[in-house]
Specification:
By secondary structure, the chain is α/β, with parallel strands linked by helices. It folds into 2 domains: 375 residues, no CATH class; 61 residues, no CATH class. The protein is built from 10 helices and 21 strands. The strands form 2 sheets. Strands 1, 4, 5, 7, 8, 10, 12, 14, 16, 18 and 20 form an 11-stranded mixed sheet that branches. Strands 3-2-6-9-11-13-15-17-19-21 form a 10-stranded mixed sheet, with helices on one face. A hairpin with a 2-residue loop joins strand 2 and strand 3. The termini are far apart.
């Protein structure tokens, strides 16, 4: 009888906690509505309300949900994050923007501070005719029809509670539109910076990137923040690659180790489009990156690469889905993780091949290097094939440094510490080498060396 009472009490406490949590978010949503003025009557705000009601019904995911079985977000759910509804105005020196800029390149750069566009910190050069490059908040006013044609169409809020929360609090983010037959020779950098806050806060950047036919575009998403900050970045990026278009996409995340990062990227690919996306994750206490690529037109080619570096008690989870919705398409996927300390990595990669997607060619690989006996990885590569004329493979490997290779390097006069660092760097370098923007590659190589040094100091302390 006492055991039943205990379970009942626990469930009642959980319901009370959830009710209090939803009241907190309801208050935040009410404050957002009050600041919208005439925007509260727009079609987008009707969508906000629907998404918020969905979030209130579902709440945050738990490990009882199959998609979140290895990603416990209880520490996120228990914090009352204050939404950053109003922009702040720090200087470039305060943010150290130059550290994350690309020297020697004429790069178009959009800077966002706590989710809001900062025109004074941004740098936009002369653009080809018809190209739109700026903030989503401005585009919602000037290009309403174009934005509403695509926004939330690819990232459905009913499939992910964090996407529902993002949709409910849509305010700003990057907006890029590239018309037919347009090539942007230099990359576009989207720099998202989280500043100091007295209380835990949350930002919900929403990015929309749309290209027409016969285009070429290179994008770098960079997420950084002040050390010691407790905040959550909940970002959703929707991307459309038009027919015969080439898109190169790099996402680099090195936020505070006291922060949380939930990122979702949804990509719609049309006929003969080519997309390469590289995801590099270093920072954050709990990080979950989701990428969904739909190959909706014949001849589309998709490449997804990823690298995670963790230490301490970090959790970095990568969830990818490549949906072969049309025939004669190809996809390649390589995700690697280097785990140290008591950190935890997750990889869940899915490849769907639909019934009519004949002549599909897909390959998926996941490799994990464990630098500590206490680090753990949950890896789950998946294939779901409903066509019969396909060539699909997948696999996963988990291991530690090869002691024979360490011995070989030591026999050539290299110290044991340097030998282990050299082999670890080599494990990661083939992912970093795939990054398209040379200055970003140099940044990543420098940060990787720093990561190895930090991990070595931690182990030796």
């Amino acid at each position: 009888m006492s055991e039943k009472r205990s379970v009942s009490t626990m469930m009642a406490t959980r319901r009370q906690s959830n009710d209090e949590q939803m009241r907190w978010y309801q208050g935040s949503f009410d404050r957002l509505e009050k600041g919208l003025n005439g925007g509260s009557k727009s079609a987008l705000h009707a969508l906000r309300r629907t998404a918020f009601e969905h979030f209130k019904e579902t709440g945050f995911p738990t490990t009882r949900d199959e998609e979140w079985r290895f990603t416990n977000v209880a520490s996120i759910a228990k914090i009352n994050f204050e939404p950053a509804l109003e922009p702040s105005a720090p200087t470039a020196d305060e943010l150290d923007v130059h550290r994350w800029s690309f020297d020697g390149m004429k790069t178009n750069r959009l800077v966002f501070v706590n989710g809001h566009y900062m025109s004074k910190l941004s740098s936009i050069h002369a653009l080809p005719g018809g190209v739109r490059l700026g903030s989503l908040a401005a585009a919602l006013r000037s290009d309403t029809v174009l934005v509403e044609q695509h926004i939330t169409r690819y990232a459905r809020f009913d499939t992910n509670p964090f996407t529902a929360l993002s949709t409910a609090f849509i305010q700003d983010g990057a907006f890029i539109f590239v018309p037919d037959n347009t090539i942007l020779a230099e990359p576009v950098q989207l720099l998202f910076y989280a500043t100091d806050g007295n209380d835990p806060f949350v930002v919900h950047p929403r990015n929309l990137i749309v290209t027409g036919r016969n285009c070429r575009l290179s994008i770098v998403e960079t997420y950084v923040g002040h050390k010691g900050n407790s905040y959550m970045t909940n970002v959703v990026t929707e991307m459309v690659a038009g027919e015969n278009t080439v898109v190169e996409h790099d996402k680099f995340q090195t936020e505070s180790l006291q922060s949380f990062h939930i990122g979702s990227t949804h990509i719609q690919m049309h006929r003969n489009s080519v997309l390469t996306s590289n995801s590099i994750a270093l920072g954050g206490s709990i990080v979950r990156n989701t990428i969904v690529a739909v190959l909706a037109g014949e001849g589309a080619e998709c490449t997804l690469n990823g690298l995670s570096l963790t230490t301490g008690r970090q959790l970095i989870a990568n969830h990818t889905t490549i949906d072969h919705a049309s025939g004669n398409c190809a996809s390649r996927e390589l995700y690697k993780a280097i785990l140290d300390g008591k950190s935890h990595g997750v990889f869940n990669g899915k490849i769907y091949v639909r019934k009519d997607a004949q002549k599909t060619d897909a390959k998926q690989t996941n490799k994990t290097l464990l630098l500590s006996d206490e680090a753990t990885i949950d890896t789950k590569p998946q294939l779901e094939i409903f066509a019969d004329d396909v060539k699909c493979t997948h696999g996963a490997t988990v291991g530690q440094l090869d002691e024979e290779q360490v011995f070989y390097l030591r026999s050539r006069g290299i110290g044991e510490t340097d030998a282990r660092d050299l082999l670890t760097f080599a494990f990661a370098s083939d992912i970093i080498a795939k990054v398209h923007v040379a200055p970003l590659r140099a940044q990543l190589e420098s940060l990787l060396h720093g990561y190895l040094h930090h991990g070595r100091v931690t182990r030796e302390a």
